[in-house]
Amino acid sequence: MASKNTVCLWYDGTALDAASFYAETFPDTSVTAVHHAPGDYPDGKKGDVLTVEFTVMGIPCVGLNGGPQFKHDEAFSFQVLTEDQAETDRLWNAIVGNGGQESACGWCKDKWGLSWQITPRVLLHAITNPDRVAAQRAFTAMMEMGKIDVAKIEAALRG
Fold it and tell me: Can you list the positions of beta strands (E) in 66-129?
């Protein structure tokens, strides 16, 4: 692994499945190495997949098959900037449609419990708009959404 800083994500035996799904779903994402355990460990046997090296949109990650002790939660998420509604829909639907679940304000979880923020660029521009009244309208619209609706954000921004 070339990066000095790597995101380590804990899985219950499903690191390779998760990394493979991410590689199929997100651009600039790939599985780079699969390492098997050199001996038995508390939640696996010698030869089981222990770690999986992968990138998520260029960010180096390692999936650790550590067992059922720890679960992902919303304290960590990947925020993915999208360019338009089509890309937003494609990524959201891939995550939710593959056993994931919808949440609020552009957040969803994949079937492994990892949180994703599928965030159209227009949303970030809208809620940071120097016109604070317009930003408030866009923010209020966002607060009522699961998947972000670009047209509704743009309409709220215009007033």
Answer: 77-82, 101-102, 107-109, 115-120
pLDDT at 2: 66
The pairing of beta strand 77-82 with beta strand 115-120: parallel
Q: What is the CATH number assigned to the segment(s) 77-158?
A: 3.10.180.10
- Considering the chain, tell me which residue range(s) the CATH 3.10.180.10 domain(s) occupy: 7-65, 77-158
pTM for the predicted model, two decimal places: 0.94
In the chain, what is the straight-line distance between the N-terminal and C-terminal CA atoms, in Å?
A: 49
- Say whether domain 7-65 belongs to CATH 3.60.15.10: no
Contact 106, 148 (CB under 8 A): yes
